[in-house]
Structure formats: structure tokens, C-alpha cells
């Protein structure tokens, strides 16, 4: 059976890996019921540690846009070398909503 692929980092998401759904437009910014993507939890954490809800809604509402952000691009480069089930704490806190 094929595992889903994380659209941010391109690694498979095994069933035992920490994972979550990311709203491409934040729920607080009108994205409730909108499109979601399944991500590794660590990838999802990194998105929310990097960008505010307003930035996500305004400029980063697609996976393609997220992948162009300099900090996320560095993160993707780093995480790509880790095993699919890898998880660690995201450095720094969550950004303000």
C-alpha cells in the first residue's frame, strides 16, 4: 500500500507518523470548509511557526507558495534528509495569529 505524500516536503507519511490537516486558507481568515492538505505534523508546525494567519491567507494559500518562502525552503531541504516518520520539536514558539 502506498502512503500519502506530504505536499510540503515530498516524503511519504506512514500511518504511524504524526500528521495533521492544514487549511490552505486559515479557518480564522475564512478558510473553514475550504481546501486542506495532509502534512507531517513537523511540516505543519513549521508553517505555523514561520507565518502568521494573515500571511497564510494573503500570500501563502497554496503549497507552491509555501515552498517558495525562504525559511520553509531551508526547512524542506533539511527535513528531506530525515526518515518519513521523523518528528522533533519545532524551534521557537508559534507566531501570533
UniProtKB/TrEMBL annotation:
The keyword Mitochondrion belongs to this UniProt entry's keyword annotation: no
HNH domain sequence ranges: 6-49
GO MF terms, alphabetically ordered: endonuclease activity; nucleic acid binding; zinc ion binding
This protein's UniProt keywords: Endonuclease, Hydrolase, Nuclease
Pfam families noted in UniProt: HNH
Name of the protein in its database record: HNH endonuclease
Amino acid at each position: 500500500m502506498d502512503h500519502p505524500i506530504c505536499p510540503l516536503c515530498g516524503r511519504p507519511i506512514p500511518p504511524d507518523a504524526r500528521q495533521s490537516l492544514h487549511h490552505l486558507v486559515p479557518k480564522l481568515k475564512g478558510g473553514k470548509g475550504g481546501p486542506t492538505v495532509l502534512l507531517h505534523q513537523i511540516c505543519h508546525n513549521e508553517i505555523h511557526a514561520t507565518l502568521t494567519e494573515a500571511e497564510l491567507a494573503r500570500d501563502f494559500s497554496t503549497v507552491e507558495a509555501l515552498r517558495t518562502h525562504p525559511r520553509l525552503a531551508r526547512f524542506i531541504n533539511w527535513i528531506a534528509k530525515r526518515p518519513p516518520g521523523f518528528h522533533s520539536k519545532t524551534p521557537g514558539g508559534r507566531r501570533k495569529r
